[in-house]
Design brief:
ATP-binding; 17 strands; disordered N terminus; seven-stranded mixed beta sheet; alpha/beta; Rossmann fold; 535 residues; globular; six-stranded antiparallel beta sheet; Beta-Lactamase; 17 helices; 3 domains
């Protein structure tokens, strides 16, 4: 392990060898017992060895426990050299030695303060998720910012275990009574006094791992519904008009697909807010969610109980949809269709004269049909244009900072000849306008990106389109959608944003795949490109 020197005092009792040449296991830890013993909390962060080295957990050099112990050594005129090392190095220095098992414990109240500050810090960074990974000897905390994980800090294993227990048992408002590290559990935090004002709620998922536990917190921001304009999310003008047409239909199921974290819930929220506003509140919108994610002013939002098993959750979800149908709705929003019971209930609601909006995990708009069939729905029903009226697939790609993004042609990325060739084929004459991610500047907080934008494909189904699907001729269905219905694939939508200098081609390909192949021509549209939103 590479060890960096923090401070070096005058000569100490030691061999004089460089620290890298000495084996930690061969040195006696003076801070374990005896005259130089450290407290239980101090021992988690430091270890004083008999060769004069003071090992300090990296990132905790300014901890009050470390500062206090160092002040004590200096007051007693003990000569030492301080080094920043990993938590594992500190732990290994104590291996084989007897330790005092009494440790000062942070109670739930003190740990809640730390948990709230962690969430507030994530909000300031505009993180979408917080990952807390409790490992064998330490805890790692990461934020997902603009879809990339950023390491924030490392803590002790005990700190992480108590943080997870506090977040689940003392802060969550919908959960089992007790945090169970050996089980998979879901919960949410929704009480206003436990959250920063920027957040509407926090969704929690936990799971045991081979060496500890992991908890992921999804942050749900209040500003997700600041506007109902879909173009602000990144949808093209044509796609926005198509979705507006779907909103005006009296019945039918409209399904949004995409992976976790692709902005499906935000799109649903803005669609329903737009519908409510356009009808001046005269339409009755009911949602069935597990749990409620974003506030939708004017809608009746109903949560599904936190069931203990997947089977119980499936039954509860289906029962909630059936109950919603008895509450005289005009529009029903179902948070997610993920099993046969919820899929059948959603289809039944669409067939009985309701407009239904929901989400599903599928790889593309056309793949939604395959997913519904996989969930047990009959082909003839999911290919009925009066029952399934709209298929939408979306992803999120990062928006470039306009202040520091260089021209792609001038960037190091352009030296990848295969990538450059694909970009030329995809954007044609617009190649000189393509830009790449920069090194960062004050405008983008040093990241090179300023948020994310939707890339999507929207299918307004009709009889001929579904006839091709029923006949198993997907190629004919796609050709008809592109040429006769004015469709635009998700790759083509991405191409238009790359051509406009909004998205780095490398980032785009990580999300949607190759921008072009040798047998594929670029079908760029002249429609205005949506700007996107920070997330």
């Amino acid at each position: 392990m590479s060890i960096s020197v923090l401070t070096e005092f005058a000569a100490s009792a030691g061999s004089g060898e460089p620290p890298q040449a000495r084996n930690t296991r061969g040195a006696y830890p003076l801070s374990d017992v005896g005259a130089w013993a450290a407290s239980a909390e101090e021992r988690k962060l430091l270890c004083l060895l008999d060769d004069g080295r003071l090992l300090i957990a990296e990132g905790h050099e300014m901890s009050p426990y470390v500062l206090s112990y160092r002040a004590r050594l200096e007051r007693l005129k003990f000569t030492y050299r301080a080094y920043a090392v990993g938590f594992d190095e500190v732990r290994r220095a104590y291996e084989g030695m007897r330790r005092d098992g009494t440790a000062e414990r942070l109670d739930h109240t003190a740990m809640q303060v730390l948990a709230k500050e962690l969430i507030a810090q994530a909000c300031r960074e505009r993180a979408s998720d917080i990952h807390i990974r409790v490992k064998r000897f330490s805890t790692e905390i990461l934020f997902r910012i603009h879809n990339e994980l950023v390491r924030v800090s490392e803590q002790t294993r005990e700190h992480g275990a108590r943080l997870l227990a506090t977040l689940y048992s003392a802060m969550a408002s919908v959960s089992d009574n007790t945090y169970k590290p050996s089980e998979r559990q879901d919960a949410s935090i929704g009480e206003r006094d436990k959250l920063p004002e920027q957040l509407f709620g926090v969704r929690i998922a936990t799971a045991p791992t081979s060496i500890g536990n992991v908890m992921v917190l999804r942050l749900l921001y209040n500003d997700a519904g600041e506007t109902t304009e879909l173009e602000r999310l990144g949808f093209s003008t044509l796609q926005t008009h198509q979705i507006d047409e779907l909103k005006r239909l009296p019945h039918g199921m409209n399904i949004i697909s995409g992976p976790t974290g692709s902005g499906k819930s935000t799109t649903l929220q803005r669609v329903l807010l737009g519908q409510i506003n356009e009808c001046n509140g005269s339409t009755h919108v009911i949602t069935v969610e597990d749990p409620v994610e974003y506030p939708i002013a004017g809608a009746v939002q109903t949560p599904v109980i936190n069931a203990s098993t997947e089977e119980a959750r499936s039954l509860a979800f289906a029962a909630a949809i059936a109950n919603a149908m008895r509450l005289d709705p005009d529009t029903i929003m179902i948070g997610e269709v993920r099993d046969s019971a919820s899929a059948q209930s959603a289809l039944r609601a669409s067939m009985t004269g309701h407009q239904v909006w929901t989400t599903v995990h599928a790889n593309g708009a056309l793949a939604i049909v395959d997913r519904l069939i996989d969930l047990g729905l009959p082909l003839r029903m999911v290919t009925d244009e009066s029952v399934v009226t709209g298929l939408i697939s979306q992803r999120l790609v990062k928006l470039l900072c306009p202040q520091c993004s260089p021209r792609f042609a001038d960037s190091a990325a352009a030296r990848d000849t295969a990538l450059a060739a694909r970009v030329r084929l995809a954007v044609g004459p617009a190649f000189e306008q393509v830009r790449a991610q920069g090194d960062g500047c004050p405008h983008c907080a040093g990241r090179g990106t300023i948020g994310r934008t939707v890339v999507a494909e929207v299918v307004r189904t009709d009889a001929h389109y579904f006839e091709c699907v029923r006949n198993g001729d997907k190629a004919a269905a796609i050709e008809y959608w592109l040429d006769r219905l004015g469709g635009q694939t998700i790759v083509e939508h991405t191409q238009s944003k790359v051509a406009a200098g909004l998205v780095d081609p490398r980032m785009a390909e990580r999300v949607v795949g190759p921008l072009a192949t040798c047998t594929q021509s670029a079908r760029l549209r002249a429609a205005p490109v949506g700007s996107g939103y920070a997330h």
